Amino acid sequence: NMIVRMFDVYKAYGKTSAIKGVSLEVASGDIVFITGPSGAGKSTLLKLIYKAEVATQGQIIVDGMNLSRIGSRQLPELRRRLGVIFQDFKLIAGRSVFDNVALVLEAAGEKPKIIEKKVMSVLRTAGIEEKARVFPPSLSGGEQQRVAVSRAVVGSPRLILADEPTASLDPDSAEQIMQLLETFHARGATLVIATHNRRIISRLKGREIRLERGCVKTQEISSDHEVEE
Ligand code: ADP
Ligand code: ADP
């Protein structure tokens, strides 16, 4: 039961090859850490999965959708199945915390009553329900990231992608964000987290896929039978 499959994927930006022949699988329910030095291709790998970038070559299947075969009309369908979290939060400054999180459900055409209930429920889980009417710029970094996690999970996506989610946070806030991600993993989401923070990797029981210069350097196959290449 694979939620992400990549076969011999390449991504070039002009003359720069960011991803070079990557094949990998992520099973439903996995926690996968994408690691490697800066410039190794971690961000690009995630961008390929949510189709912010298009592979130069190779096949990518996400939750049964072949990304090279889906057009712009099916892109919202793909994005609804994913939650994405960024290092710099990417919240809308001019909208309240509630509205930032509600936007996903509004776009999906949910009824206002359901939206109110789901948004408040996820903000409660994230420990920021009392900030619902506040605007993001008045929150700490850790609080803003909790809003971003709330936004990513409110539509109950099967897959959560996080690109250096703790890189701009202090250690305590980073720990809270990882705990929060663990909570949503326990509720059934698959996590793919790009990071070079060894400490947060050791906190969660996941497997590691290490990239170097766009190639998979080492890959732990699964928690049952770990294999070093
Ligand atoms: P990481 O997330 O591991 O730091 P990235 O995926 O951001 O790595 O970058 C991989 C390589 O691709 C780097 O050499 C980077 O400079 C290059 N790169 C990333 N995005 C772009 C882009 N939009 N245009 C050109 N080069 C890019
Ligand atoms: P990240 O490592 O998370 O991609 P960066 O600060 O490296 O963050 O990149 C910020 C933006 O610039 C991203 O959209 C990335 O794709 C793009 N980018 C990264 N490297 C390059 C590059 N060498 N040339 C052009 N754009 C780049």
Automatic annotation (TrEMBL):
It comes from the Bacteria. Residues 4-229 form the ABC transporter domain. It holds the Pfam family ABC_tran. InterPro entries: AAA+_ATPase, ABC_transporter-like_ATP-bd, ABC_transporter-like_CS, ABC_transpr_LolD-like, P-loop_NTPase. The keyword Nucleotide-binding applies. This is Cell division ATP-binding protein FtsE. Belongs to the ABC transporter superfamily. It comes from Desulfobotulus alkaliphilus.
